[in-house]
Every structure is written in C-alpha cells, then in structure tokens.
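Internal tracking record. Fields below are filled automatically when a chain is submitted to the structure queue. Please do not edit lines marked as system-generated. If the sequence contains nonstandard residues, flag them in the REMARKS field before resubmitting.
Queue: standard
Priority: normal
Entity type: single polypeptide chain
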Amino acid sequence: MITYYCPHCWTIVDEQMTTCSNCGYELGQFLELLYEDKLLASLKHPVQDIRLMAIKTLGDLGNQRAIPEFEQIIMNKNEDYYILRAVVLALENIPGSQSLTLLERAIEHPSDLVQRLANRIIKRIRNQDGTG
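SYSTEM-GENERATED OUTPUT FOLLOWS
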C-alpha cells in the first residue's frame, strides 16, 4: 500500500484528494513545481530516506537555494546524524562562501562526528581552492 502525503504539511492524505484536509493545500499545485522546488519541499518529508535523497540531489545539483534549509537542519541539535552527515557532504558540492560559512558553523555542532566531518570537508575545499 502506498502512503500519500501533502507536500506542504506532510499529513497523510488519500490518493483521490485534491485538497489537503489539514492545511488546505491544492495538491495538484505540487505537480506544477520545478524539480528543484520539489526537492526543497522534500527536505521536510517524514520519511528519512526521501529526505536523504533530496539532500544528496540538491548537493549534486549545487543548489544554492538549499543553503538556508540546510542551515535549519544543521542548527537543529536533535536532528538525526545521517541527515546531518548528508547535509555536510552536500555542502561540499555547493559552490560559494555561504556553503563554507555553514560548514564552519557545523564545526560547532554538539555532535563530535558532525564536527570532524565538517573539518575534513573544509580542509578539502581549502586545499582545492589553494587557500588551505
């Protein structure tokens, strides 16, 4: 059995519904979104594997618009380690100073594993840029 979710509030909806009974979102609108907008929405999906795939894909695409969303994830001290790890790895593929700044903030995360990974990624970026 397939579970359907509202892409706005992530409430479970019936396949036949056209409007979310929880938030009123017109479900057909999601089909009209650009691919990257769908990925950004998926960062809040209740299924962890969907979130992980969206994070990786946004990183692979070098999507700058993902950075504020990634910041919220990194600043959430209760976030799952695998989600945090995926975000740190994705930031390596997003060019620009905002990614580096967010990686530097990740060094202050309570998780030692996140801190060490962010440090390794920053060193790699700086070595590639010749600033290391």
